[in-house]
Amino acid sequence: PILYSYFRSSCSWRVRIALALKGISYDLVPVNLIKDGGQQFSAEFKALNPMQQVPALKIDGITLSQSLAIINYLEETRPNPRLLPQDPKKRAQARMIADHIASGIQPLQNLSVLKQMGEKKTEWAQNCIASGFQALEQILQHTAGRYCVGDEVSMADLCLVPQVANAERFKVDMGPYPTISRINKALLELEAFKISHPSRQPDTPAELRA
């Protein structure tokens, strides 16, 4: 497999965690979203992913984009360890939380949106994340065990950790979100989350390396 990724992309990070948890080795091709006006806009990358976004994963003779679609494919083709609970209700909750982050928070504070916000970009990002986290904190009080849904790592957790990192980057006050903070801390102790961390990627700038 070949993963086209950017060290700081939260969507790429989700997929790196999934690959690490499932023990899938891959080659990483960095796509710098800032350099050269954004390498994702090159004709070469557009041919690979017409949406001009990372991640993209070449695997099993196909090229997939969209992090949750990639994670679902990995889950269906390489089911161990599982990233969706067996119980249908818990499975739905894991998908709901993943969607809450991947559709309801992350796109609103994405690089392409922030560019359009000009000087207000930090305030905008903080507001988008805070309103999403207020809802998420409430949801997690009903679904969480050690992790987002019970005591098993699920797709929901793969979305949570990168989103908390974004929140910290934009200096969002995490005080009102004790459940989110507790789960995030527990997840960051797991090896798959450590090795996929933005501070430990081949394309991480020297000053941001762990």
UniProtKB/TrEMBL annotation:
One of its GO terms (biological process) is glutathione metabolic process. Pathway: Amino-acid degradation; L-phenylalanine degradation; acetoacetate and fumarate from L-phenylalanine: step 5/6. Keywords: Cytoplasm, Isomerase, Phenylalanine catabolism, Transferase, Tyrosine catabolism. Its cofactor is glutathione. It is found in: Cytoplasm. Residues 87-206 form the GST C-terminal domain. SUPFAM superfamilies: GST C-terminal domain-like, Thioredoxin-like. GO terms for molecular function: glutathione transferase activity; maleylacetoacetate isomerase activity. One of its GO terms (cellular component) is mitochondrion. Signal peptide: none annotated. It catalyses: RX + glutathione = an S-substituted glutathione + a halide anion + H(+); 4-maleylacetoacetate = 4-fumarylacetoacetate. The keyword Transmembrane does not apply. Residues 1-82 form the GST N-terminal domain. Its EC number is 2.5.1.18, 5.2.1.2. NCBIfam families: maiA (TIGR01262). PANTHER family: MALEYLACETOACETATE ISOMERASE (PTHR42673:SF4). Belongs to the GST superfamily. Zeta family. This is Maleylacetoacetate isomerase. It comes from Rhipidura dahli. The lineage of its organism: Eukaryota, Metazoa, Chordata, Craniata, Vertebrata.
